[in-house]
Design brief:
By secondary structure, the chain is α/β, with parallel strands linked by helices. The chain folds into 2 domains: 182 residues, MOFRL domain (glycerate kinase, domain 1, 3-Layer(aba) Sandwich); 247 residues, Glycerate kinase, MOFRL-like N-terminal domain (Rossmann fold). Helices cover 36% and strands 20% of the residues. The protein is built from 18 helices and 15 strands. α13 links the parallel β10 and β11. The radius of gyration is 22 Å and the shape is globular. It starts with 5 loop residues before the first helix and ends with a strand.
Amino acid sequence: MILELRSLEKCDSADSVRQILRAALKAVAPADAVMRRFARDPNLLRVNGQEYRLKEIDAIYLISVGKAAIAMADAASTILGESLTAGIVVSKGAYRDDKQKKPLKYITASHPVPDDRSHEAGLEILAFLEKTTSKDLVIFLISGGGSALMTAPVNGISLRDMEILTSLLLGSGARIDEINTLRRALDCVKGGGLAKSAFPAQVATLILSDVVNSPLEAIASGPTVPNPTSNKDALAVLKKYNLLSQAPPAIVNTLEKKDSFVDDKVFSRGNTAIIGSNLISAKAAQKEAQGEGFKTQIITTSLQGEACKVGKELAQRLRHEKTETPFCLIFGGETTVTLKGAKGKGGRNQEVALSAVHELSGTEKLMLITLATDGEDGPTDAAGAVVTGETLIRAEKLGLSVDVHLEEHNAYPFFDALGDLIKIGSTGTNVNDLTFLLGF
């Protein structure tokens, strides 16, 4: 991970800061996280601490879906070896040609808005699971992005309807848990749908969480766990963001019908665990920061709200922080950006950083860093940005207006011109975002 940032280079503690960011990402590396939950000998397989006697299992199937699908599947298949019967891997990134080999089938689908490939992936997984029996074991590896990468709309709903709904929700400022409330109500693979299809097979699910506070039903819309929300709840989300009149009529009509819940017996043979989360990442960063001599505290891993407002509030806290230096305050969570007409280039982490610029102007030895743990903030190749007390002065010398760029949701060009975009490439993981408030 290369972090050559102009503002960071001026900091005497640059190497320490880099180590903190590296530690945060390393702790939730998908392959390592999977490996820690698997163990086996010739006759026994342990997943999440539960034992499965191989001689009592006819077939082991693997379904891996999400941004970390390839890395998670690679790790699991390495451990399972010849015991793995077959499986499907659905990811956002393309696979190498040499990976398209038996017994796994690799599929590339769309994110954050589902497309025909996502639909094909959902239907293929449902068909694949239909052949399972009570003597089989199905291992699900679920990571962020799974909701869009795999879809199978309920009867009466078209893929186009789901594409329109997803775009409306993403542009409305709706939280990810609210978006997933709609998805669970309208999709056959979500809200326990995959567990239903796999029943009566034994099921083990390993989850890399991309949702604030990691509620199981919200991660990839809970394909293997019960759905705690209803059609009424889904309608309430549409009403909250004034989307009832804009949503496709077929969706509104479906949500007005009686709920169809998955029978609880479907989950009786399940074994589910979260193997990576924002909290795990934040704790790793905290440990590293303490080792580097920073007085460190995790303030929250539930940070939410409008990015431009959150950024300003965090900057105000940093500006008036009374903790002895050096210090490192860690905030985890996921903010939102409500698009109002103008659609520039950027993402929620970059907008948090941009909205902090005015508040930090003129301060000394303070730094705010935002980081999308997947390495891709919004539809950009940047994970976040760095802000210091000199950011505003440097921007004004280049003729850059903070207010104009904020209004246009155009943070990427702003920080790109300053050389303060964090570009680390796709990390293969996704456990929400981290913001660091640093004093030196």
